[in-house]
Amino acid sequence: QVQLVESGGGLVQPGGSLRLSCAASGFTFRRFDMRWFRQTPGKERELVARIDWDGDSTNYADSVKGRFTISRDNATNILYLQMNQLKPEDTAVYYCNSYPEKSWGQGTQVTVSS
User: CA 68, CA 78: separation in Å to the nearest integer?
Assistant: First the structure.
């Protein structure tokens, strides 16, 4: 059974940092490209960052480029998103998924506010 469990969210002040984690199980993690998404109420889910199966290639949405870093540990089946210089507009529920997509986890809430 595929499981994607996101964690690491919370309340942070503008300019702060958070590191999100995504624990994957039920599929061969190391064989799949992985992605982070985010969603705010009333809006479609937005692709934030992607990483290829071995971590050699990454891409970012323009809105987070230079501030967020995606990485992965294929030995432990964990995907990470390091988020620095956070802005109020980064407030969202963050989700991870593979490509092609599998079932969605519950996400982790990130709130950037003073």
Answer: 17
**Residue 79: which of 40, 49, 47 has the closest Cα?**
49
Q: What are phi and psi of 113, to 5 degrees?
A: -160, 145
Sheet holding 3-7, edge to edge: 3-7, 18-25, 78-83, 68-73
The one-character DSSP state at 89 is G
What band does 109 get if pLDDT is binned at 50, 70 and 90?
very high
* Per-residue model confidence as pLDDT tens digits over 25-71: 999 999 999 999 999 999 999 999 999 999 999 999 999 999 999 99
Are 96 and 2 a contacting pair, CB within 8 Å? Answer: no
Beta strands across the sheet bearing 33-39:
10-12, 108-112, 92-99, 33-39, 46-51, 58-60
